[in-house]
Structures are given as structure tokens and as C-alpha cells.
Model the fold of this input.
Amino acid sequence: MPTVTVTSWGQAIMTSMVAALALFLGAIPKIIGFLVILIIGWIIASALAGVVASLLRAVRFNDLAQRAGFSDFVRKMGVHTDSAGMLALIAKWFVRLIVLVVAFDALGLPAVSQVLQQLLLWLPNLVVAMVILVIAGLAAKALANLVRGASAEAGFSNPDLLATIAQTAVMAFAIVVAVNQIGVATTLVNTLFMGTVAALALGFGLAFGLGGRDTAAEIVRNWYRQGQQAAPKMANAADAVKRRSEDAAPTLDGNNRSVRPAPART
Done:
């Protein structure tokens, strides 16, 4: 815009109004482009969320989430949807954030776009952390069932306690890994985790070393005796699990078709 020499208050006001009007008229195409991109992107994100939810429900993702404990987590969040709907909601807002980045770039606000881009770069870490928790939940439940069954077959008096300890240990490690993945207070969480482990180890060491050496020796002897007595039972339990897996595994006939063995008659 060429420079105008102002000689009076009226000319100054008129020049300011003309400059403001020119700026407003120049921003109208950007505003229209911003609104068009926003509306089209919002519609596409909603349609994509519906497709993702339908696909996840078709592959029975909710059953997997129920076994992993992810469904309970979704219910406790207060979200009025199932696990498939939760992931579809995350996908919808991920697409909407991308749309917002493009829209604010078209509007000429790069500062807002940079903030949204940083958020978009962080969201994959959140998805990976959720996947880690789901897989860890499945592994923890499987390990708990294995420990419970093996300890019950071996004759231990507290199989549920051992299964709970195994499940809690797996989930604790998974939470630490997930927190490190999303990068939220990683130093604090790692310090607390290491401090908890060190405190437990130190507490057991002091309890056995100072106040109960004789008791600890007796407990260790009892454990050793129970271990010697339970060794044959553990071997029998392992053989039983192996036989069950072999009986449950399908075999192939001459036409390469899966054939399950007939149950044994009693």
C-alpha cells in the first residue's frame, strides 16, 4: 500500500478506515477457505470414525478388549461407548486435528498450526502406550491363569495369591513402559518404581537379617522341603498341560483339512 501523507484528523481517520476495510476484505477469502476446510474435514472425520467402529466390531475387537481389561478402563472413564467406539473416537479426533492444522495454515496462523503439529506428533506415542497396556493385560491374565493352575496342581495352599502377584508385576512393568512411551513424568515414575523395588528389597533384607534370622532359616527350609515334595507334582502338571495342548491341536488329513481328534470314550 502506498504511503499517504496525513494533513488533518479527518484524513487520518479516513485512511485508517480504508486500511482496516482493505485488511478485512483481504481476509474474507482466507476465512471462507478456513470454514470450507473445517466443515469438509469434520464430515470426513465423522464418516471415518463410523467405518473404523464398524470394522473393529466386525473383527470382535470388543471381546479382545474385554479379556485384556481395556473395556473396564473405558467404562471407568465415563465414556458412553464400547472399546471399538473409543478407538473410533480417537481416530476421529486425530483426523480433526489434521484438518485444524490445514485450516489454520489456510487462515494464515502458523503459530496455532505448530502447536497442533506437536500434538499430532505426540498422539502416536499415546496409541502405542494403549496397545502396550492391552497386550500387557492379556499377558498378565494368561500368566495369572498359568501360575494359578500350576500352583494348584503342585499342591500350594495359596494359588490365587501367587497369580495376583504375577499379574500385578506384569501390569506394573507395562505401566512403566507405557508412561515412558508417552513421555509424561518419566523421571518421576522411574524413580518411584525403582524406589519401591529398592524399599521392598531393603525391607525384606532387614526383616530377615536383623529380626528373624532363625525364622527366615525355618521358612527357607520349609520352602525347600515343599519344593522337593512339589517337584513330581509340577512335572505331572506340565505333562498334563502338554497332553491337553496336543489333544486340542488340530491335525491334517490327506486333503490338508484340519481334523480334530475325537474325544476318548470312557
